[in-house]
Structure formats: structure tokens, C-alpha cells
Amino acid sequence: MSLAGRTIVITGGARGLGLAFAYAIAESGGNVAILDAADQPHEHFYRLQKESGAKVEIYKSDVTNYDVLKATFDQIVADFGRIDGLVTAAGICPDESFLERSPESVARCMNINVLGTYYSAQLAAIQMAQQEPTEFSPRGGSIVLIASIAAYVASKGQQTSDYCASKGAVVALAKSLGVELAGKGIRVNSISPGYMMTDMSLDLCDRFPVLSDIMNNEPPMRRMGDRTDLKAPVVYLLSDASAYHTSDDLLITGGIHAGRLL
User: Fold this and answer.
1) What pLDDT was estimated at residue 135?
2) What is the rounded CA–CA span in Å between residue 248 and residue 170?
3) Per-chain mean pLDDT for the chain
4) A Gene Ontology molecular-function term (predicted)?
5) Number of domains making up the chain
6) At what angle are helices 116-130 and 161-181 packed, to 10 degrees?
7) Of 64, 125, 191, 231, which cross-links 111 as Cys (Cβ 3.0–4.6 Å)?
8) Contact 220, 259 (CB under 8 A)
9) Is residue 212 part of a domain?
């Protein structure tokens, strides 16, 4: 699965899963444009930029502000010449009782997870639809929206009602856009990870042993997913290996979407 000669945009790519996707894309020959709200990326970003051999740049932006986001996409096109793929990894997961959740907290979650995904997909698709194919990239492109197992089942041990709703919206958006954009050569899919070993989830496991037990022992495969478990699925959906694959959601959960062991 090659991404040689292609430019992939990643939202929320300064650390965590987004940065793991950047490594996967660069390892597959692709160039990477990361946008993130963080002032500084994780130190591993600089290692990727220095050692990968790919063109890797980062842009400070805000997925909830359409004008700011559009200016960032315009700059990416100016710097890279085109956009062949998009991965929307920007997101937050508040943990608070539904009965106590404030309108401001709900709006922030929905703005980042849903509107930020929607705006990013729209801006990428506009560019994909108007650019010419190359020897490396066919007409159109591929959009991969990062959803969650929370789109299907409640987060056990956590109170994440707005997060669950937002990821359900992302899954539905991918299905709809895949149909609407197929005629323009643009494929749209989502990936719903289960419990993954990120800095945030590992911190939760350290602070709350009950969550550690849930995340490590309830998946039928009896472990949390590693970030590397998502690298191949992302590259697959971005590459020509998935040329006839659209409007789908890949469940990478260790089986927890089918049943829990505890």
C-alpha cells in the first residue's frame, strides 16, 4: 500500500493517534500536513520531520473556526500543491454527568468533534474535486474520519454522553458523504477504534484502576489497542488498495463491538 507522491492532511496530528497516523503515512511514502490547536507538537513530531524523508509540516489552526480553518487549508495547498487525503483526528472526550453537563461544555464537544470534522471534510473535498489527477494520485481523493466504538455502545465506567453522540454523527457523516461525493472520485470512510493506548487513556488507567480493568480485560482480545493497530487501516483507506471501498466504518476494537468479556 503506497502513498508515494500524495499529500495527506491530518487534523489533531500534533500528538496521540493523529501523530501515529502521520508516521504511518510518511512510512508509506506520503507527505504530511498536520494542523492542530496546540502551540507545540509532541517531540516525536520533530523526529518524524527530520528522519522520515517525507515533507512534513505543521500548522496552528482551529477546526471550529471556519475562516481560520479555510486559511490553513489554503496555505497547505500553497505549500504542497494539492490535497490527496484527509484524516480527521481532532477531538475531545469530556467525562461528566449528563444531568450536570453545561450548555457550554456540550457545545464545545460538538463543535470540535462534529463541526470540526464537517468543516475539514468539506474544505478537503472542495480541493480534491477541482485538482487534476497525477501519476501518483487518481481523480478525487480519500477522506478518513476518526469516529469511535462510542458511536455504538456507551462508554462503561465513564459519563460521555455528548462524546458518544458526536461520534455517532461522524459515522453517519462518512456514510452520507461517501454516497454524495462518489461521482467526484472522492471516497469517504470512518474508523471506529476501541480502547487505545494513548497518553490520555493511559493516564486515566493510572488514576482509575476500575477503568484500567475495563479497558484491558473487557475486549475479547484481552488488551487495549496499540496506536500501531490503526496505522495499516488508515493507510489502506487512503491508498488505492481501497479503491472500491467507501461509505463504511471500520471497527478496530479487539472485538468489543461484538461483546464484552466482563
Assistant:
1) 82
2) 11
3) 94
4) oxidoreductase activity, acting on NAD(P)H, oxygen as acceptor
5) 1
6) 20
7) 64
8) yes
9) no
CATH, residue 17: 3.40.50.720
Give the residue among 57, 66, 73, 75 at the shortest CA–CA distance from 13. 57
Alpha carbons 205 and 225: distance in angstroms, whole number: 14
Whether the Cβ atoms of residue 10 and residue 32 lie closer than 8 Å to each other: yes
Task: Taking residues 192-219, report their average pLDDT.
Answer: 87
**Residues designated catalytic:** 148, 163, 167
Residue 4 near residue 134 (C-beta atoms within 8 A): no
Order of strands, sheet of 56-60, starting from the edge strand that comes earlier in the sequence: 56-60, 31-36, 7-11, 85-88, 141-146, 186-193, 249-252
- Write b or e for each residue in 5-15: b if 16 or more Cβ atoms lie within 10 A of its Cβ, otherwise e: ebbbbbbbbbb
For residues 72 and 63, give the distance between their C-alpha atoms in angstroms, rounded to a whole number: 10
Residue whose C-alpha is closest to residue 86's, from 55, 133, 122: 122
**Range(s) of the domain holding residue 86:** 7-195+226-252
Do residues 190 and 146 make contact, with C-beta atoms less than 8 angstroms apart? yes
pLDDT band at 230 (very low <50, low <70, confident <90, very high): very high
Residues sharing a CB contact under 8 Å with residue 7, sequence separation 6 or more, in sequence order: 30, 31, 32, 33, 55, 76, 80, 81, 82, 83, 84, 85
How many residues belong to the chain? 262
Residue 201 lies in a domain: no
Check pLDDT > 80 for residue 262: no
Distance CA 190, CA 221 (A): 22
Residue 237 covered by a domain: yes
Predicted TM-score (pTM) of the model is: 0.95
d(CA 150, CA 5): 35
Does 204 score more than 90 pLDDT? no
Under DSSP, is residue 107 helix (H, G, I), strand (E, B) or coil? helix
